[in-house]
Amino acid sequence: MKSFLGKNKILTMLLAICVGLIGCSNSEVTVKEDMDQFIKTTIMEEDKDSVSSSDKQFEAHKIYGTDKKDGITSIYLHTVYEGYDKVTGNKIKAGYSYPVLIKLAKKNNTYVVKEYRIPEDGAEYTKSIEEMFPEKYAKMAINQKEDTVHELTNEIQKEVDNWLNSSK
Fold first, then answer.
1. Strand partners, 69
2. In what side-by-side order are the strands of the sheet with 110-117?
3. Which tens digit of pLDDT belongs to each residue from 59-107?
4. Is-contact 90 161, C-beta < 8 A?
5. CB of 75 within 8 A of CB of 34?
6. Which pLDDT tens digit goes with each residue over 115-136?
7. What's the DSSP call for residue 51?
8. E strands along 29-71, which residues?
């Protein structure tokens, strides 16, 4: 009987440790429409100076993944942000494309940006992405860049065409 009780205590302790570890680990977050719109607005606000000389700005992003830890949601994504003028039509006046890490907290039913980070330029580009993103998302951001940019640029081009056609 003592042996059975001893095994139960050990099993109970192991179960408690496992539950504790699971509870402390990062968890995936589903990005719903309100969060996605907040992400778009945040990107456009953070980087408005780079395309502010244009008539209209457009942003598209691809989310590689998310996680949540201690009330902070980290979003790992790639963004394309471009500015256009009516005079030049669908020719890009200004823009950029790069991976972004956005960390959000929720306060009083609204999101608050805790961190907004982009990679370093030049030789530090890849290394900084690897520091910003978990390994699986860093690989995606580095290896799928051309495909992602092409996809996002096509998405923006549709919005630009609609904008240009609606103003005729």
1. 72
2. 56-69, 72-84, 94-107, 110-117
3. 999 999 999 999 999 999 999 999 999 999 989 998 999 999 999 999 8
4. yes
5. no
6. 999 999 999 999 999 999 999 9
7. T
8. 56-69
Query: CB of 153 within 8 A of CB of 166?
Result: no
Cβ-based neighbour number of residue 76 at 10 Å? 22
Q: What is the pTM of this model?
A: 0.80
DSSP H or E segment with residue 7: helix 2-24
Nearest one of 142, 149, 141 to 76, comparing CA atoms: 141
Q: How many CB atoms lie within 10 A of CB 145?
A: 15
Residues 6+ apart with CB under 8 A from 83: 51, 52, 53, 54, 55, 56, 57, 58, 92, 93, 94, 95
The span from the first CA to the last CA of the chain, in angstroms, equals: 87
Cα separation values, 93 from 40, 51, 55, Å: 20, 8, 9
- Per-residue DSSP letter, 119: P
86, two tokens: 């009516």
Nearest to 134 by CA among 12, 25, 60: 25
